[in-house]
Amino acid sequence: MDRADTNTSGGDGSPGRASYRRSTGSPRGEARRRELLDRVTDDLAVNGLVDFSLRRAARAAGTTHKVLLYYFDGADDLLRRAVFNLRERRIGNALAVTAKGTGPETLAARVRAAWQVLRDEEPGLRRVLDQAVGLAMYDSGRYADLAREASHQYLPTLLSFCPDHWSDRRKLEVAEMVLATLRGFLMDRLTSGDTEGIAAGFEALVRALAREEAAEE
């Protein structure tokens, strides 16, 4: 990959904007930046992280690498933002089937519905997001944010699955447990292909969540 300066994350967990080398803050500039990012994101979903570069991104966006450097701080910045976009798509798919008031009514049922989305999602999307975590582990000094930002993105959704009357601490404890477990299942699914074992482990998780929800405060 092309090496470039990376940004720090914004307070909301999204990639930061403070280190932009050039201002693109006008409505027209922001629209153009979003258009370019969406095209690069689509390419990443199809072709993965391997051999990602600024020139490849420029071809996918139908522009030049110099234009991308006007709107982004290099290949690493663009990669982080595209991975962020892909996670937002994953989260949006999960929320579409778990929204309170229209979807499942219990924590266990919401997690089950979300898992079905993760399990059955497009192979390209799953592959890229798994690759992003692997890249963060391989070169944590350069790509740690690819994994760190994942928790910031996923946790609000998992917290929203918890019963409203739970304390914030209890919601966080359960959400963190679910996040770690599902990420482990996804990684095991990618590396081992042991779908039967993963299915058994998931059923154990669902039973644990049902007991947690049934327990008194």
How would you concisely characterize the structure shown here?
By secondary structure, the chain is mainly alpha-helical.
Low-confidence stretches: 2-22
Structural class: mainly alpha
- Overall shape: elongated
How much strand content do the residues show?
Answer: under 5%
Helix content: over 70%
Terminal Cα separation, in Å? 50 Å
Radius of gyration: 19 Å
Number of helices: 9
Return the string of H and E elements: HHHHHHHHH
Mind summarizing the main beta sheet?
A: none
Mean pLDDT: 83
Number of strands: 0
DNA-binding region: 53-72
Organism: Amycolatopsis taiwanensis
Keywords: DNA-binding
Protein name: TetR family transcriptional regulator
Structure commentary:
This protein has 9 helices and no strands. Helix 1 packs across helix 4 (75-98). With 217 residues, the protein is mostly helical. Residues 30-90 form the HTH tetR-type domain. This is TetR family transcriptional regulator. InterPro entries: Homeodomain-like_sf, HTH_TetR. One of its GO terms (molecular function) is DNA binding.
